[in-house]
Write a structure and sequence with these properties.
Elements lengths: L6 H10 L2 H16 L5 E6 L5 H8 L2 E7 L2 H10 L4 E4 L12 E4 L14 H14 L5 E7 L8 E8 L2 E10 L4 E12 L2 E12 L3 H11 L1 E6 L1 E2 L2 E2 L4 E8 L10
Parallel strand pairs: 1-2, 1-4, 2-3, 4-5
Antiparallel strand pairs: 5-13, 6-7, 7-8, 8-9, 10-13, 11-12
Helix pairs in contact: 5-6
Length: about 250
């Protein structure tokens, strides 16, 4: 496995990129309440540094967070110490009965431990469905394919003790997006530099809807979480379990 959210990038993501949870968190909480999910366990796939877990705890939920990055999990345990966390691929989660599952920030797109093939996604969605009751929710967002111009750009962001530079290059023929990330983080009397390359699978939105239906979900798709808009070519999927068939037993 290539380096993936190692210590410095995990820190930078934690302190410098709170946008999605800040913007979408309240919208998802309102959605849960509207679905009658006022309490219970939320399984958060690709939980990162635990900011979403912390918000869920503050609103009375219990949380199991899963992330493939050990440094992210270390941060998450400090951010939300009352939650449970597991360092694992989202394809290897030991699912248990819960009220909802979330996967925010393109967690399903990442190729941290292999590409998100149709077979892997189908198995994952069926595993998620099996742990939800009727009316349970799976909320996630993904980067989807487009017939428009491929994504090629550079961006940067900085804080008091860090800077991050990102170069994005899409390879449409491979349904792949590459993020080359350079991080500078202050340490001692200077800054140390680290680099990571993240491979992001670009998914077929129609295929995801078909797989969700096959797993027993009814789904709504939007470029927003409620009133919070997502970035270019990102879609939010709110999937509701249709029946109790396949629910995992308690314990």
């Amino acid at each position: 496995m290539m380096p993936f959210y190692e210590e410095d990038l995990a820190y930078v993501h934690h302190v410098g990129f709170p946008d999605l949870v800040d913007g979408a968190g309240d919208e998802l909480l309102a959605l849960f309440r509207a679905a009658g999910l006022d309490s219970g366990l939320i399984i958060d796939l690709g939980c990162g540094s635990g900011t979403w877990a912390k918000k869920l705890l503050e609103h009375g939920y219990s949380v199991l967070g899963v992330d493939v990055s050990a440094p992210m999990i270390e941060l998450a345990r400090r951010t939300a110490p009352e939650a449970q966390f597991q360092t694992a691929s989202l394809y290897d989660v030991d699912f248990r009965p819960c009220a909802a599952v979330t996967a925010l920030g393109e967690a399903l797109n990442y190729c941290a431990d292999g590409a998100p093939s149709e077979a892997r996604l189908d198995r994952l969605l069926r595993n998620i469905a099996s742990c939800l009751p009727k009316g349970g929710v799976f909320a996630f967002d993904i980067l989807v394919r487009s017939d428009g111009e491929p994504m090629h750009y550079r961006s940067w962001r900085k804080g008091p003790d860090w800077a991050a530079l990102v170069e994005v290059s899409e390879q449409p023929q491979e349904n792949l997006l590459i993020r080359d990330i350079t991080v500078f983080r202050k340490g001692g009397h200077g800054y140390r530099r680290s680099e990571e390359r993240h491979r992001i699978g670009v998914l077929d939105g129609a295929q995801i809807e078909r797989l969700l239906a096959g797993a027993g979900f009814e789904v709504t798709v939007s470029p927003h979480y409620g009133r919070h808009p997502l970035a270019q070519r990102r879609l939010a999927y709110i999937a509701y379990k249709r029946s109790n068939e396949g629910l995992l037993p308690e314990g």
